[in-house]
Amino acid sequence: xxxxxxxxxxxxxxxxxxxxxxxxxxxxxxxxxxxxxxxxxxxxxxxxxxxxxxxxxxxxxxxxxxxxxxxxxxxxxxxxxxxxxxxxxxxxxxxxxxxxxxxxxxxxxxxxxxxxxxxxxxxxxxxxxxxxxxxxxxxxxxxxxxxxxxxxxxxxxxxxxxxxxxxxxxxx
Length: 172
What we know:
Blueprint: H1 2-22, H2 26-46, H3 50-75, H4 83-88, H5 90-113, H6 120-128, H7 131-140, H8 144-171
Helix pairs in contact: 1-2, 2-3
């Protein structure tokens, strides 16, 4: 039964991602992107990566899609003639598609060959508990310095954006 759900969600993700590329209106492409993100989050849940599923829904299906919609509304993008550009790069696209499918085939072959191999994260997960606990413990023990540096960089970027907005408002 679990294989049926995995097949269903992966098929939905593939079809929705194809519709993102093939959509005629840009807002329809964004809506198909939401479907792709949600089906990918369902796949993460089925693989036991609940933290990644939550991040997928909160960050990508939530914040990034809202950002895309606001950018589309602000720029006021009309229907673009994108198909004219597709015909120029058709051979390159076919070649890249074949390379990607070959890489996927190698990944699947390698996965089924080394099915019993367990990495260090699987060992730590067995010792510490669930997926989220492992990520939390690693973030706040082994990777505390890069984590704090990233938070300081984001804080500086926010302060810089506020300062720029205030100075531009005073000039206007």
